[in-house]
């Protein structure tokens, strides 16, 4: 069983993204997880769940953060995402990674610390779309997913893998009010 920690966009924008993703019949990403921005990937988040107390301690003393969603971009030509930015997000990411202390190999495998790129994945070739469909989707996203929102993040969400490659909400951990 695996876990990861993410940030969920406001419900209205999350619904807008899901409806956008559903326009492509072969896009299976909705079967994997809801739209989110990964804050801490799977590396080091073990089944014993001892790491949860560390995350709660960090979040309890970390104030809410301001996050903005931006234009679509690509990782290579196989992953389409909406870019995201926040002055505070990198610091929170770093604090959580350092507290959990995954190996350097896991940090590199999951693109953490200096390789961390905040983003919200729209689609991947791995989840059913062709590279050509991803390019068309990117063009449509520029029109259909604007205006891109900015919002306050008051909690982080822990996701748990229920079945192979299907993640669901496990718990929300509030940030300092």
Automatic annotation (TrEMBL):
Gene3D superfamilies linked: Cyclic phosphodiesterase
GO molecular function, one term: ligase activity
UniProt keyword terms in alphabetical order: Ligase
Organism: Salinibacillus xinjiangensis
Designated name of the protein: 2'-5' RNA ligase family protein
């Amino acid at each position: 069983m695996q876990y990861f920690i993410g940030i969920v966009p406001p419900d209205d924008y999350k619904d807008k993204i899901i409806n956008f993703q559903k326009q492509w019949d072969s896009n299976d990403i909705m079967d994997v997880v809801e739209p989110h921005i990964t804050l801490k990937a799977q590396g080091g988040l073990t089944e014993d769940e001892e790491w949860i107390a560390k995350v709660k301690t960090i979040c309890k003393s970390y104030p809410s953060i301001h996050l903005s969603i931006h234009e679509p971009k690509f990782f290579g030509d196989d992953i389409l995402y909406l870019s995201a930015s926040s002055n505070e997000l990198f610091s929170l990411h770093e604090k959580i990674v350092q507290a959990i202390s995954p190996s350097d190999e896991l940090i590199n495998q999951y693109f953490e610390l200096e390789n961390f790129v905040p983003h919200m994945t729209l689609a991947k070739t791995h989840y059913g779309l062709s590279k050509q469909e991803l390019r068309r989707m990117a063009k449509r996203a520029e029109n259909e997913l604007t205006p891109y929102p900015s919002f306050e993040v008051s909690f982080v969400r822990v996701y748990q893998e229920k079945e192979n490659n299907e993640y669901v909400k496990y718990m929300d951990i509030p940030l300092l009010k």
